[in-house]
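Example 3.2
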Amino acid sequence: MQGYIEKYLLDPIIYGTGYNIVNTVFYALLLGLLVYYTIKLFEKLELKLDIYFFSYYLFYIFIGSGLRVLRDYEVITSNLFKTPGIYIIIYVILVVSILIGIYLNRIINFKYHYFPLFVGILISLFTSFKLIELGLNFLPFFKSLIISGLIVAIVFIVLRKLEFEFINEKFNLGIIKAHMFDASATYLGISFYGLTAQHVLPNAIISATHPSAMFPLKLCVILPVLYYLDKSEKGMMRDVLKVIILTLGLAPGLRDIILIMAG
């Protein structure tokens, strides 16, 4: 059993060999548990996933992606900063900072989001300075923005014409933008910068077709999911699931584009 764990779970982290069926399923189950307990925690805290939440949450997505790239370039050497360890670390920091912010709010009437925002900005500055030291070329970033922006505009126009109301929701549009940004970073990275897809399903599809297949692949998954969530789910369950979906697009997209920029 120990050899099985080392081969399929630990070795891919230590040696950077990517994903396989076993660790993909394991991480999916781990994510499911994380989502479940996050929903329960946020409901207990009566936390609203509003503009104040996103004022600090996006910093933590950047931190996770940025620190992961610093590990790729061995600026940071600990394997804890590889996937999935880096995202567990960021999750713990995020939750602890939220809890401290809520505690401060209750004892001194201090708006809770200021504390996680302060922590997020502080770590983001450290991460940014370290990344800048690698020497970043921002052209691929702008290329990715342009490609993803054009595709999102087309999707928006088509779905508006077809009278799908969920496309008018700003949060939904932001999620689609995040995943198209991820798809464009994957497309650029594989087509022009020598990167490879590490996840099992995308790697299989790209190998059989073309890196541009990531765009329709993601749309075929994301659009029905968003439509279903708006029709069937309400409250904290829907909001947390949308935040997770946003993160699953934006975090790897940022990591890939920063890798390209630093390459």
